[in-house]
Amino acid sequence: MAGTPGAAIGDAWTAPGAPGGAGPAGAVPSADDRGRASAAGRRDDRDDRDDRDQVTAPEDDTEPLPSVPSAAAEPPLAQGSADSDASERARSLLVPVADSEPREGPEDPAVAPVLPGRTAARRPQVRAVGPQADAEGGVPCPWCSTPNRPERHFCARCAMSMTRAEDAPRRLPWWRRTFADRSAESAWAGERPRLRRGFGRVWNWVVGAVVIGLVVALVMNLGTMIQATRDHFAKRAPVGPSAVKASRSYTGHGAGLAFDKLNNTWWGPGISQAAEGEWLEVTFDQPTRLLDLVITPGTSTRADQLSESALPRRIDAQITLADGEKITRTLTLDQSAGGQRRSFRVGEVTTVRFVLRSAYNAGPKKQVAIAEIEFFGRSNTTS
User: Fold this and answer.
1) pLDDT tens across 337-361, in order?
2) What is the 3-state secondary structure (H, E, C) of the chain?
3) What is the pTM of this model?
């Protein structure tokens, strides 16, 4: 055994590239072994060049072509080494992708949410007003002493007038503002009256005309208004005529019985039906102011005697004044018993004529009857 160490070592050595073989330390390979090793190295170089040709650049859009295995048989160890190198090269070409991070929630909005339909306006920011940069050496405000530009009429800080109250222009009265000259110089801002253009000016003239008309009417009718006021509050007193006459009268029932201050006597025209156009006339010896009038229709004031005669319904009172003016008043009476008061309110009366126009219960066997006509004027007594 000790005499043959070289044979044991030679038996255990295997050529490089052979499966399961590893050369001993210091052993020198033979010429055949070196040839086989060089051929295997050349095949590995060709395989590396083929792999480099088949791998495409990152910016190429085409897919890599499949590698064609070599026709020559390769040792199992060389083929495994080539696959490992190709895997490393392919792994180096992969683009690294960052790990996905969880999305954060939305940031809190600057404005808090509000209910639909309700506005949430931002509060205004109050900016303090200070002295103006270009007002150095300007006119100081008489109220807060802040310098202002010479052309300003109101302070930039306190908004007060640049003039004192005693020097400020006063507001004109309304009549001067209404009829003021529009071509005059305009007042300063804040002191001028409200502008009225177009319809406003026309409205001023209309109001002025109405006021003037009311004043003129008041002056012209002032006496009449005073008289009417006195008549309204005056105490009444009976007034009797100085003369009486009629267009015609029934026998025993003359015109004087209508003014005798008795309600059981009466006047009648003596004709049937309504006696339209027949009249009674009274005369006053001096102009008299008549305030009220009371007429009693029929033959008396009793209700059971209303059907004995026709009752006057409409009477025209033709009034003659002291100056010759004639006025007509229409009096409409009711179909009832007793005296009926009517407002007269006529001044300076000299003559009154009562003309019959229509009647109640008129018939071929009835005539119109008037029991009494009374006049009332202003009483001369104050108590």
Assistant:
1) 899 999 988 888 999 999 999 999 8
2) CCCCHHHHHHHHCCCCCCCCCCCCCCCCCCHHHHHHHHHHHHHHHHHHHHHHHHCCCCCCCCCCCCCCCCCCCCCHHHHHHHHHHHHHHHHHHCCCCCCCCCCCCCCCCCCCCCCCCCCCCCCCCCCCCCCCHHHCCCEECCCCCCEECCCCCECCCCCCECCCCCCCCCCCCHHHHHCCCCCCCCCCCCCCCCCCCCHHHHHHHHHHHHHHHHHHHHHHCHHHHHHHHHHHHCCEEEECCCEEEECCCECCECHHHHHCCCCCCCECCCCCCCCCCCEEEEEEEEEEEEEEEEEEECCCCCHHHHHHCEEEEEEEEEEEECCCCEEEEEEECCCCCCCEEEEEEEEEEEEEEEEEEEEECCCCCCCECEEEEEEEEECCCCC
3) 0.46
